Amino acid sequence: MGKTAYLVLENGKTFRGERFGAEGEMTAEVVFTTGMTGYLETLTDRSYYGQIVVQTFPLIGNYGVIPADFESDVIGPSAYIVKHWCQAPSNFRSEGSLDTFFKERGVIGLAEIDTRTLTKTIREAGVMNGIITDDPAGVDFQALKGYRIEGAVKASSTKEQYTVRPEGPVTKRIALLDFGQKENILRELVSRGAEVTVCPCNATAEKIGTLDVDGIVLSNGPGDPAENVEIIENLKEICKLNIPLFGICLGHQLLALAHGGRTEKLKYGHRGANQPVKNRLNGRVFISSQNHGYAVVSESIDPEKGEELFVNVNDGTCEGMRYFCCPAFSVQFHPEACGGPLDTGSLFDEFFAMMG
Ligand SMILES: NC(=O)CC[C@H](N)C(=O)O
């Protein structure tokens, strides 16, 4: 049995649990994901920077730790909450248990939490901050309420530009702006024969112009999209290069902001592997993998500049845009999946077709 620790939410609600992984205290925004599998992809997704992730699926860790499934070389979430964690994982690819993995990486895990009640609380009251602590009576609620995720993209992006080449012949050259990218975006591009130059988040139009690329991809990433003022200004110039552009998740949000649009924070976001999205051009519905707390307000974009391409079937929020003023389209969900369904992977093919 692990040592007792607590999750205290900013509304005062307290949940008792048992520690695994690293010791210590952690304050962050508490969000839930409904993915039944794919916990390794979730744990290594840097878009969870500054967040404590709650898994609604009650048993996590049963297939152990499989590095080949990682979406980055760091743990994205600040801490991790589950109902049960599996102490005897079994899988031919497994290289260890969650407990050891968390201890090695200094990440706090909390198990035996009533994740159903916790999820309902967040769903009804909206996303809020929380602290994992051994001393629930000593929580400073003012500090807890004041916690904000800041500087997340800069902290997550690569500092140095680097290039990844395909094994076979190079079909296209792509610049990938790394805002905290998931590795599978890179894999999807390289597997289609692209030579991909991964650029730091603040790469300018001038810099991208010198790379002589056929296309530009804007990656996913953490935090409030509107906070990235410098990147949004750069994107306005990048759009003027008139090179085909594909934005994913944070990339989609930043592209909308660069087109004069607005983003809003959703009550509790979309995180999981079964979010239905509808293509407004042909009415087809796809099941998608998602992890976002903000959404583009599609009406805030000048209809002369762009239109909504995908909409969420559950709540009607914007899931994709296409633009008329430059060769660009973007999606809020994850066509690269990992975890989750591969239904929308063909969007990478559409992007390659766009590059000619
Ligand atoms: N996965 C992402 O790119 C997330 C985008 C943004 N940080 C949000 O929460 O909405």
From TrEMBL:
Signal peptide limits: none
Family according to the record: Belongs to the CarA family.
Upper taxonomic lineage: Bacteria, Bacillati, Bacillota, Clostridia, Eubacteriales
Leading EC class: ligase
EC id: 6.3.5.5
Record region (CPSase): 1-169
Keywords from the UniProt entry: Amino-acid biosynthesis, Arginine biosynthesis, ATP-binding, Glutamine amidotransferase, Ligase, Nucleotide-binding, Pyrimidine biosynthesis
Assembly, per entry: Composed of two chains; the small (or glutamine) chain promotes the hydrolysis of glutamine to ammonia, which is used by the large (or ammonia) chain to synthesize carbamoyl phosphate. Tetramer of heterodimers (alpha,beta)4.
Role summary: Small subunit of the glutamine-dependent carbamoyl phosphate synthetase (CPSase). CPSase catalyzes the formation of carbamoyl phosphate from the ammonia moiety of glutamine, carbonate, and phosphate donated by ATP, constituting the first step of 2 biosynthetic pathways, one leading to arginine and/or urea and the other to pyrimidine nucleotides. The small subunit (glutamine amidotransferase) binds and cleaves glutamine to supply the large subunit with the substrate ammonia.
Domain Carbamoyl-phosphate synthase small subunit N-terminal: 3-133
Pfam family, one: GATase
HAMAP family: CPSase_S_chain
Active-site residues per Swiss-Prot or TrEMBL entry: C249 (nucleophile), H334, E336
Metabolic or biological pathway: Amino-acid biosynthesis; L-arginine biosynthesis; carbamoyl phosphate from bicarbonate: step 1/1; Pyrimidine metabolism; UMP biosynthesis via de novo pathway; (S)-dihydroorotate from bicarbonate: step 1/3
Protein name listed in UniProt: Carbamoyl phosphate synthase small chain
Catalytic activity field: L-glutamine + H2O = L-glutamate + NH4(+); hydrogencarbonate + L-glutamine + 2 ATP + H2O = carbamoyl phosphate + L-glutamate + 2 ADP + phosphate + 2 H(+)
Entry binding sites for L-glutamine: S47, G221, G223, L250, Q253, N291, G293, Y294
Naturally occurring in which organism (per UniProt): Neglectibacter timonensis
